[in-house]
Design goal:
Strand content: 25-35%
CATH class of the largest domain: Alpha Beta
Distance between the termini: 34 Å
Largest sheet: 6 strands, antiparallel
Shape: elongated
CATH superfamily of the largest domain: Molybdopterin cofactor biosynthesis C (MoaC) domain
Length: 200
């Protein structure tokens, strides 16, 4: 057994027995505090997390993603001339619907009674890109990060579906969590918004 630290490597068999025993106990105790995967039980099998004993709090999550396309495609969307109809309105509705169905799409997610879902679009003409932002809120026992990420994903896929006839090379990228609040773990802000990843 060995212990690694910042610039330090200790082989326990090289230490006196009375020292190595104490260090090994400390090391074992420290391991118990490492983050664990909550969707795995003690035997490594998948499980749905039991949130029955958790307190209901206001929880919110914000996610973003981006769809890059040809300038002509961007123009068709922003001028409302896409053959299938209003692309952004359809994508917004799809994103909201998807957030509400997340528990049926992701196996270990809980079905939730969401209190608010919104999907917004930031049109970036110079990059011929559409940034998608979804925000989800609930008063409940578990977070809504997956609901926000699902809303962004399905909104992006809807944009692709509405425009694939003219641009099959569209790229869906950078889908990520930007912010979450509420619950025992508190607030998370992504690096792009806070200068550094943080868990408060």
């Amino acid at each position: 057994m060995s212990i690694k630290g910042k610039g330090v490597f200790i082989a326990l068999h090289q230490l006196p027995s009375h020292l190595s025993h104490g260090i090994s106990l400390v090391a074992m105790k420290k391991d118990t505090h490492r983050p664990s995967l909550t969707h795995l039980d003690q035997e490594g099998r998948v499980q749905m997390v039991d949130v029955s004993v958790k307190s209901e709090t206001v929880r919110e999550a914000v996610a973003k993603g981006c769809v890059y396309m040809q300038p002509r495609t961007f123009e068709l969307i922003t001028t409302g001339r896409a053959k299938k109809g209003n692309v952004l309105t359809t994508a917004k509705i799809a994103g909201i619907m998807a957030a509400k169905q997340t528990g049926y799409l992701i196996p270990m997610c809980h079905p939730l009674n969401l209190t608010h879902v919104d999907v917004k679009f930031n049109l970036q003409k110079e990059q011929s890109a559409i940034e998608i932002e979804a925000s989800v809120k609930i008063v409940g026992r578990t977070g809504v990060e997956m609901e926000a990420l699902t809303a962004v994903s399905v909104a992006a896929l809807t944009i692709y579906d509405m425009c694939k006839a003219v641009d099959r090379g569209m790229r869906i990228t950078d889908i990520r969590l930007i912010k979450k609040t509420g619950g025992k773990s508190g607030t998370y802000l992504a690096e792009e918004d806070n200068g550094e990843n943080s868990n408060k």
